[in-house]
Amino acid sequence: xxxxxxxxxxxxxxxxxxxxxxxxxxxxxxxxxxxxxxxxxxxxxxxxxxxxxxxxxxxxxxxxxxxxxxxxxxxxxxxxxxxxxxxxxxxxxxxxxxxxxxxxxxxxxxxxxxxxxxxxxxxxxxxxxxxxxxxxxxxxxxxxxxxxxxxxxxxxxxxxxxxxxxxxxxxxxxxxxxxxxxxxxxxxxxxxxxxxxxxxxxxxxxxxxxxxxxxxxxxxxxxxxxxxxxxxxxxxxxxxxxxxxxxxxxxxxxxxxxxxxxxxxxxxxxxxxxxxxxxxxxxxxxxxxxxxxxxxxxxxxxxxxxxxxxxxxxxxxxxxxxxxxxxxxxxxxxxxxxxx
Length: 340
Known about the structure:
It is built from one helix and 21 strands. The protein has one helix at residues 331-337; strands at 8-9, 43-53, 58-67, 72-81, 92-100, 108-111, 116-122, 126-133, 138-146, 151-152, 158-171, 174-191, 202-210, 213-220, 233-234, 242-249, 252-265, 272-281, 286-302, 305-316, 319-330.
């Protein structure tokens, strides 16, 4: 840390979702939603997909960000192996900030500049994603099939869903078989402003261990566990750091009501290395989950925010699973805690 220690609050960015039931999700939520009358320019709808090959330390991210009030969209494809210190050091990067809004719905649409096509085979059940970039000799075809119902964020407008992913990848002429899991994410109907926020890092975490076991947690580090940031940021009170999450276990889907999270970072003070959690579900069962980052790259989702995207190896009840960690950081944290 490299500055004095004024107290900076993150509490204003925390939604009161903990303990509420998961929202119901309908098949129509797979498609574009009507823009509310008078919606602001920051109205947002997103689709997030991906794949991984853990034995190769390889992760792929596909992100589509719709701006319905502005009638434009952003889209990206990232593929990388291992630890990358720069986004442009990834094996493959293709990102466009400004693209035309889809002319129809998103049940079957193409994003031509990326060579990307996304097709809904069965709403909330199965999708096909293809990408072809012949100039750079990169292509893939993925079929994603749900292993669980979509978990709706309490209050609605958002769901996360664990998927079985099968397909093939050509990466600059190197051929890979995709046979794993990935948690997709959808959001709509709310505004997402690109403002700079004074808050500690926020962790978006998912892990899948098989068709019967998966989790999602969105949380700050718990001040009760003594994170370094607690001296600078007025985080939520101890034990109140969770935004929302779920546990999918043996065919039962339960919201998370507590998540004792602590992050260990690299010597640079920024990049996440280990995530340790004690998660309590709504049924009162406590789960101890530990994640170790195997592949990582930083991405400035927008210029006021940096996110470390991480392929993470999770351990839970003697089982090994894989999934994404997204460590969300703003200027105030990086300015104070970077150790370059």
